[in-house]
Amino acid sequence: MRFRVLLVLILALIWAVASWRWYTCNIKGFCGSKTTEISQQSPATQAAPAAISGDLDGDGLTDALERALGSDPKRIDSDDDGVTDAYEIGDNTSQPLDTDNDGIINALDTDDDNDGQLSNTENNDPNSDGNPIDAFDVDGDDILDFLDADHNDGQHGDLDGDGLTNGTEARLGTDPRNVDTDGDGISDDDETDDIKNPRDTDGDGVINALDANKDDGPLADPDNDTLTNADETRLGTDPNNPDTDGDGLNDGIEVGGNRMQANDADNNGTIDALEAYSAPITSSPEPIAAPVSEQLEVVVAPSSFDARIYFPYNNAANPSLADATETYFKQVIAEANKGRHIALVGHTDDHGNDAANLSLGLQRAKTIRQLLIDRGITTTSITVSSHGEGSPIQSNTTDQGRQANRRVELTIN
Fold first, then answer.
1. Over the chain, what is the mean pLDDT?
2. Residue 316 and residue 313: Cα distance in Å, rounded?
3. What is the bridge-based pairing of β-strands 307-310 and 320-321?
């Protein structure tokens, strides 16, 4: 009887040991070659102790689930992209994540966003802990780069490549997909300059990058007479006409340096810029003093095409041309046709008052301009101005000196 009991106990012990070994080796995989296989994996994919029953790699996913999904139950990162299977499958295991909808779940997809770059090359886990919480998001759209096929559409991106981020353009009101929002031929970045204080050159409250018309604000000067629109509105002059009263003198010159107290030469209450000069000239600006040529005569500088063109006395209109002057004009036109610019400045002697001589000098410059236009030069190639009696080249005390001072100086640039 005792022998039988002892035999039963021994057989029960043998059965228990065999059952334990079968369970640990075949179910848990804790012995033999399987244990060696896991230990030889890289640190990023090495299995942690099983967290739940039937979870060989300890990633929180059952082995049965991983087999069903196609992931490796013995490796926490089946696709070797640096992010654990558990994170890449997501919270809803019945619908594992497939960011790019390519039919390959993220846990098995080496390029999760299908942008042509492997996920592990897109800074998906900088600290290599398997958790992409520290992954990069370069464009600031709250989509991690390895899951974001477009790295340029967030607030830190620059869709149009104009140098302004999308976020900055949204704040300014410019179009992040258009280099030149206002269509004026200048990029938004060049027109903005300082993003904290973007330029508004004409002072109309519309920043330059959004303002196709930069001549309509109070600080603009569309007629280039040195008076701003605000100045001209206050003075009553025309902001789109540099010579409001049509007397041949620029509004800015007639107003003078003090914009708040414009010139009024005759003290009649009307500023000079609004009153064409019409006072009688009591003495001839350039009286006849000695016989002089009735033709325009030109003296050309020896080292350039620049020249002085001398006028007959008291004359600004319809003079005849000497042959040398006609030849010179042809040379000037040829230079202008090459793209060079012609500047004409009229001068007088000192007889007569300042305003009359300033006007006479301007008329002389305009006469030369018209002669050149009649011979084929384009109007855009020429500018005219007057110094009146203000820039003599000889003394006005002699007839010869006064004759030398009655001239137009032509400069080719």
1. 81
2. 9
3. unpaired
Kindly state the DSSP code that residue 81 receives in the 8-state scheme. S
Contact of 348 with 361, CB cutoff 8 Å: yes
Residue 114: the pLDDT is: 92
pLDDT band at 286 (very low <50, low <70, confident <90, very high): very low
State the sign of the Cα–Cα–Cα–Cα dihedral 29, 31, 34, 40. Answer: positive
Q: Compute the distance between CA of residue 118 and CA of residue 82 in angstroms, rounded to an integer.
A: 11
**Separation between Cα atoms, residue 122 and residue 257, nearest integer Å:** 64
pLDDT at 167 over 90: yes
Give the three-class secondary structure for 410.
strand
**Contact criterion met (CB below 8 Å) for 345 and 306:** no
Q: Residue 195: exposed, middle, or buried by beta-carbon count in 10 A (0-12, 13-18, 19+)?
A: middle
Does the model's pTM come out above 0.70? no
Decide: 139 and 157 in contact? Cβ < 8 Å: yes
What confidence tier does 252 reach under pLDDT thresholds 50, 70, 90? Answer: confident
Domain ranges, ordered by start, for the chain: 1-37, 41-157, 221-279, 295-412
User: Considering just the CA atoms, what is the radius of gyration of the chain in Å?
Assistant: 45
Which residues partner with 309 through β-bridges? 298, 408
Name the class of domain 295-412: alpha beta
pLDDT of residue 279: 37
Predicted local confidence at residue 269, as pLDDT? 87
CB of 192 closer than 8 Å to CB of 172: yes
The Cα–Cα gap between 189 and 164 comes to: 6
- Contact between 199 and 191 under an 8 Å Cβ cutoff? The reply is yes
Q: What is the DSSP string of 300-349?
A: E-TTSS-EEEEPPTT--SS-EE-HHHHHHHHHHHHHHTTT--EEEEEE--
Confidence of residue 37 (pLDDT cuts 50, 70, 90): very low
**Number of H-type helices and E-type strands within the chain:** 11, 6
